[in-house]
Amino acid sequence: MVRMLVREPQNDDIHYVELACLSSDTKPIGFATGSLCLEVDTGDVYAYDEEGDSGSEWCKIAELGGGS
């Protein structure tokens, strides 16, 4: 289950968010570039890019380790 930890408006339509989820969760889209998602079971951190190579996407930016 995806949990929203932080939500800050950037404009009327787009919000910066920080999320926590599992690697098996589908990460939601439609946020401000730079929003973050931590996969708590893997420790991987993803940043949202509204204008990625394949359109809006989550890109892994760090591997913190973790999980069981």
Structural write-up:
The protein has 68 residues and is an all-beta fold. The protein has one domain (3-63). 0% of the residues lie in helices and 53% in strands. Strands 1-2-3-4-5 form a five-stranded mixed beta sheet, with no helix packed on it. The radius of gyration is 12 Å and the shape is globular. 13% of the residues are buried. The mean pLDDT is 90.
What's the topology here?
Layout: E1 3-9, E2 15-21, E3 36-39, E4 44-52, E5 55-63
Parallel strand pairs: 2-3
Antiparallel strand pairs: 1-2, 3-4, 4-5
How would you describe the shape? globular
Helix segment tally: 0
Query: Count the strands?
Result: 5
Low-confidence regions: none
Radius of gyration: 12 Å
Characterize the main sheet.
5 strands, mixed
Strand-residue proportion: over 45%
Q: How widely separated are the two ends?
A: 18 Å
Count of discrete structural domains: 1
Q: Can you give the mean pLDDT?
A: 90
Short description:
The chain is mainly β and 68 residues long. Helix content is 0%, strand content 53%. The protein contains no helices and five strands.
